[in-house]
Amino acid sequence: SSPDRRIPRRAPDGERMHPRHVFAAANPDFAALARTRPRLRPYLVETRDGRHTIDFSSWEATVELNRVLLDACYGVKHWEIPRGHLCPPAANRANYVHWIEDLLALSRPSSASASVRGPGVVGLDIGVGANCVYPLIGASLNGWRFVGIDVTDVAVASARANAEANVAIRHLIEIRDARTFSLRRRDSARDGSVILPAIEEDERFAFCMCNPPFFDLDRSASERRRPNRASDFGGSDAETACPGGERAFTARIFEDSLLLRDRVHWYTTMCGKKETVKHLRRALASREARVAAVRTTVFRQGKTARWGVAWSFAESAASTNDAPLR
Fold first, then answer.
1. What Å distances lie between residue 217 and 109, 237, 272, 307, CA to CA?
2. CB-based contacts of 118: which residues, under 8 Å, 6+ apart?
3. Over pLDDT 70: what percentage of the chain?
4. What's the per-residue H, E or C state across 117-176?
5. Are strands 304-312 and 145-150 parallel, antiparallel or unpaired?
6. How far apart are CA 277 and CA 295, in angstroms?
7. What is the pTM of this model?
8. How many Å apart are CA 191 and CA 182, to the nearest integer?
């Protein structure tokens, strides 16, 4: 045992998790999870007061915990990611999915007019990653259909394998390689486009979502790799870095949205830096953009904060800017 280990505490104001989140009221009981899922047992760490936590500094422990949570909480029965690739914290990612539910409750396309759930709601995951976590949670929780796009061999292959292995929802998830899918288009997408190369000319989506690469690929590897000894969620260069970093990537989504307009009802992205949010909101506020609605939120988990930004060009969303989301 390790007397220095501390059990993560909940925020005193109760705002750390979305109110519909499975862990909104209490942290997961790691020992109870390990009793029903023995693969988690080797990674339990007993604290001085006899409680249990997980060694978050171990990538293997982090992966196993998230595999267990995806199964226990969302019915995702199979989940594998290549060694060293990004292991997204499932609880944090579920917060994002719940926020999109809130946005769709305010305004949604006519194809999904009956409900915020079910296959009439089609989402686009930009940079689905090897983990495929958003489509897996969204399809399992809400029955949404998903198109997940990426640009590396390993991400596309692993995401497809994860989708196919979950028999109950595999018909709801399509994974596309944005590098080759664009060859099917009669027109050529704008250079630097993120969304356009990976969608059909007449496709429409209820929402898009994205966890953009955080680091600037143009910076040195030492600047990009600032190890956090308290946790190891992995992440390949392709998953964590791109030219210009997060700010440039979200700007490309914004530029695509100006061309696609209401073909995506809600454009959304997660941001890891407040500065990115400021730049994106400034662009959205420009008269030329003619954006009908803008919403923001904060995703809290432990000591980590991430921001969500959403915008819509749909007339039905214009009256929702002041409506409460929860």
1. 36, 8, 16, 22
2. 112, 142, 143, 144
3. 81
4. CCCCCEEEEECCCCCCHHHHHHHHHHCCEEEEEECCHHHHHHHHHHHHHCCCCHHHEEEE
5. unpaired
6. 11
7. 0.89
8. 12
Burial of 249 (0-12, 13-18, 19+ CB in 10 A): buried
Take residue 54 and report the two structure tokens written for it. Answer: 């997980």
Low pLDDT (below 50) residues in the chain: 1-5, 7-8, 10-14, 186, 188, 220, 222-224, 226-232
Tell me, what amino acid is at 88?
P
How many other C-beta atoms are found inside a 10 Å radius of the C-beta of residue 83? 8
- In whole angstroms, give the CA distance from residue 219 to residue 281: 25
Strands 241-242 and 264-271: unpaired
What torsion, rounded to 10 degrees, do the Cα atoms 247, 250, 255, 258 define? -130
Q: How far is CA 142 from CA 44, 76, 165, 174, in A?
A: 31, 13, 18, 16
Token code pair at residue 143: 């029955």
Residue 302 DSSP code: T
Separation in Å, CA 26 to CA 10, 18, 22, 149: 7, 12, 8, 34
Q: Tens of pLDDT along 145-169? A: 999 999 999 999 999 999 999 999 9
Q: Using N-to-C axis directions, what is the helix angle for 133-142 and 59-74, rounded to 10°? A: 20
Mark residue 128 as left, alpha or beta (left: phi above 0; alpha: psi -120 to 50; beta: remaining).
Answer: alpha
- Residue 91's CB: how many other CB atoms inside 10 A? 22
Q: What is the DSSP string of 1-69?
A: --TT--PPPPPTTS-SS-TTSTTSSS---HHHHHHH-GGGGGGEEE-TTS-EEE-TT-HHHHHHHHHHH
* Residue 228 vs residues 72, 89, 160, 224, 273: alpha-carbon distances, Å: 28, 15, 30, 12, 17
Residue pair 261/317 in contact by the 8 Å Cβ criterion: no
Helix (H) or strand (E) segment spanning residue 270:
strand 264-271
